[in-house]
Design goal:
The chain is elongated, with a radius of gyration of 13 Å. By secondary structure, the chain is mainly alpha-helical. Helix 2 (13-36) packs across helix 5. Helices cover 82% and strands 0% of the residues.
């Protein structure tokens, strides 16, 4: 998340959002690997990790799931649809990612 914050400060909101996505994916994969093994964590894409493993494995509560999906969808639009994001959207993604990572560390 530190790199995402640096990108945001430097006026690179799309890069910040992409790095926020990476941060939540790494955090979720680590948590899923701890709970279900590394094969389970590696087998799924981020959407499936959030939907399936987070819910079934109680890795994230519903509010954390919603935050993770918000970051994922913003990053998807930036990375695959070449969408531009505003500074407010990048700030929202950063705050959501920070909360998701914090929730995962506290469990």
């Amino acid at each position: 998340l530190r790199q995402a914050a640096n990108c945001f400060i430097l006026g690179l909101p799309e890069a910040a959002v992409a790095l926020c996505r990476t941060a939540i994916e790494v955090a979720i994969r680590r948590r899923v690997a701890e709970s279900f093994g590394s094969q389970a964590a590696a087998a799924l894409d981020l959407n499936d990790l959030i939907n399936d493993m987070a819910r079934r494995g109680q890795v994230l509560k519903p509010d954390g799931i919603a935050l993770a999906h918000r970051v994922r969808t913003l990053a998807r639009d930036v990375l695959h649809r070449e969408a531009q994001v505003t500074d407010d959207q990048a700030r929202e993604a950063f705050e959501a990612a920070r909360q998701v990572v914090s929730l995962l560390k506290s469990r």
